[in-house]
Amino acid sequence: MTAxxxxxxxxxxxxNPAFRLAxxxxxxxxxxxxxxxxxxxxxxxxxxxxxxxxxxxxxxxxFYNPTPPAHWSDAQQAPPRPYVLIPPLDEKTRYAAGDTxxxxxxxxxxAVDYFLIVFAALEHLGEFMGLGKQxxxxxxxxxxxLTSGGAGTLYRNRQWLGQTQAMQAGQxxxxxxxxxxxxxxxxxxxxxxxxxxxxxxxxxxxxxxxxRLLSRINALATLYGGGIAIAPEQKQQxxxxxxxxxxxxxxxxxxxxERHSQRSHSDMPFGGLLGETIYSGELAPFVPWLALGQxxxxxxxxxxxxxxxxxxxxx
Length: 315
What we know:
Helix content: 25-40%
Distance between the termini: 32 Å
Shape: globular
Mean pLDDT: 90
CATH topology of the largest domain: Alpha-Beta Plaits
Order of helices and strands: HEEHHEEEHEEEEEEEHHEEEEEHE
Largest sheet: 7 strands, antiparallel
Radius of gyration: 20 Å
C-alpha cells in the first residue's frame, strides 16, 4: 500500500472502530438561588468530584485519578481522564430558584458502563450538597442522549424512557468526503496547546493541532477502549500531509481565566485561545478525526470542558 493510497479519503479508517463514547445532556433545575462564575466548568468539575467521592472513593479515583497501565509511554504526562464535562457556555452568573442549567457529560470506552454512577453522583450533588457559593440544591429534570445522528430523551420526570446507546468510532469514518479544501474550526471553550513546553498564544499550525488530537484519541482508545485508534505509520502519514495545510484566516485570541483550587488554596491559570480559524489544503483525510474530536476535545484541561470546538465545511 502506497502512502497516497493510505491517505485516500475513501480508505480513511480507524484501527479501533469499536472504541465507544457516549454523550449525555443533563437538564438541572435549581430549587434555590445561587451565583456561579462566568465559566462554570470549574464549579461543576470540583462539585462532581466531591459527589463521586460520596458515592464511593474508588469511583472518584476511576474518573479523576486513573492509574496509568504498565505500558504507559509518557511518565511525565498523566493519563487522560475517561470523561469530559460540557458546562453551560452562557455568561449568566445569577440564578433564581426554578432556573435551569444544561450540563453535558461525555464518557469514553469502559466509562460508558459507569453512566448510572455519574447519574447517582449528580443526583446526590443536587439533593444533598448543592452548587455554587450558596450550595443551591437542584433536581435532574431530564437527560438527553446526544449522538452524531440526533438526540433522544433518556430520562424525564423521574422516569427512564430508554437505554443508553454508545457511538462507535468507526461510524465517523463512514461518510468521509472524496475531497475538501477548506474547513472552519470554532473553539467554543479555551484551547490550551503547548509547543516546546510553552502554552501557545497564537494560531496553532494545523499539524500541531492534529498531532495533539490524534494523540489524545489514541490515549483514550488505548486506556479505555482496548487498543489504539490509529497506527503509528498512518499517524505519521497524516501529520506529514497536515504540514501542507495553510492558515487562511483566524480570529483566535488569548483569554485569561483563573480557577481557585480548594485543594491547594491557590489560583490556577486556565487561560486559552477562543475564536475561529479557517484552514485550507487537502483536508478530506482529516474530516473523520476532526468530527470525532468534537466529542473528545483537544489540549489541556479537557475534563473541565476546555478545548471544545466545532468543525464545519466552508466554501
